[in-house]
Amino acid sequence: MRLYTWPVALLFSVLAAHAQAFSTPKPGQVIEVALEQLHPTQAVVGFDQIYYSLGLFADKPAKVFDEYCETNGQGDADKVPKDADLHRPASFSCKSPVGTHPDEMKTVVVGPGGQLYLTDGHHSFTTLWEVPGGGPQLKMWVKVTDDFSNSPDMATFWQRMETARKVWLKDNHGKTLAPQQLPAHLGFKNLQDDTFRSLVYFTRKAAYGKPDDGAVAPEFLEFYWGNWLRSQIDLSAFNLNNKGGYKDAIQAVAQRMVSLAPGSQVGDSGFTAHQLGGMSQLDQAELKKTFEKKVPYVIDYRKSRS
C-alpha cells in the first residue's frame, strides 16, 4: 500500500505546485520575473537616459546594485562585495526586504494567457538588460496593478489598456502605432530611441516633478511632455553630439515646459501641465546638477558605442 500511495501523493503535490506556479497574479501582489518575460507597452525609450545610467555604472560599478535594490523596492544597496553578482542576490545585500518601498517598484498588468505587460520600468529594466552582468534572464520583482487576463480576445485587452492609459502607442516621431507593432521584448535592439523622452527626463526636478496635490502621476508622463515638445522645439538647431549643445537643448526644453500655464492642456494628452507635475518656475540649480553630473556620462557613453 505504501508503495502505491507514495507516488500518488507525489503526483498530487506536483500538480498542486504547478497550479500554484501558473495561477494568475492579482493586483497588489509582488512577483518575481525574468526581464525576458515582460512584454513592453511602448515601442520607444530615451536611449540617452539609459546611456547616462550605463555610463555611470561603468564608472562606478557598485551603483548598479543601488538600481537593482531600489527597483525591487528595497532601498539602496547595503553590502556589495567585489564578487557581487546581480544573478545571485545572496552575493550582496539591500537595506530592506523586497517590496518595502512599493512606490519605487515597476508595474505590470496581467494579460490573456498570463502574459505580463510592463507599464512602468522600461528604462530601468532596459538598463539592467544591457548592463554587463545583467541581461534578459535577470530576475526582478514587479508590482501587479491590474488583471485583464479575462479579456475574451486581444482586441478587447488592448482596448482596456488604452482606456486605462496603460499603453503608449506612438513611435519615436509621434506617429500612431497598432498594438501589434509593439516589440515583444526590452533591449536596445527591440526598442526605438525618442530623444525628446530623454530630454524631458533630464529636466526632472527642474521643470517638472510629482504632482504637488498628492495625485498619482500617470504612466508615460514624460512621453506626454515629449510628444507635445515635438511640435514646440526644433532639435536640428542643437548639436546633440557635444556637451554644450546637449545642455542647450535641455535648457530650451525646460524653459518651454515651465512657460505652459498650470491649467493648460499638454498637447493631446488629456492632462494639464499641473496634472503632469509641471512647475511654474525653472529651478536652475537642479539643471546645473544635471549639466555637471549627467550630461557628461551621456555624451561619453554614446561616443564609446561608436
Structure description:
The chain is α/β, with parallel strands linked by helices and 306 residues long. The chain has two domains: 24-193, Alpha-Beta Complex (Conserved hypothetical protein from pyrococcus furiosus pfu- 392566-001, ParB domain), CATH 3.90.1530.10; 195-306, no CATH class. It is 37% helix and 10% strand. The chain contains ten helices and seven strands. The protein has helices at residues 2-21, 47-59, 63-71, 122-130, 154-163, 195-201, 221-229, 243-258, 284-293, 295-305; strands at residues 30-34, 38-40, 44-45, 107-110, 116-120, 139-147, 192-193. The strands form two sheets. A five-stranded mixed sheet has the order 1-6-4-5-2, with no helix packed on it. A two-stranded parallel sheet has the order 3-7. Strand 4 (107-110) and strand 5 form a beta hairpin. Residues 1-22 have low confidence and may be disordered. Keywords: Signal.
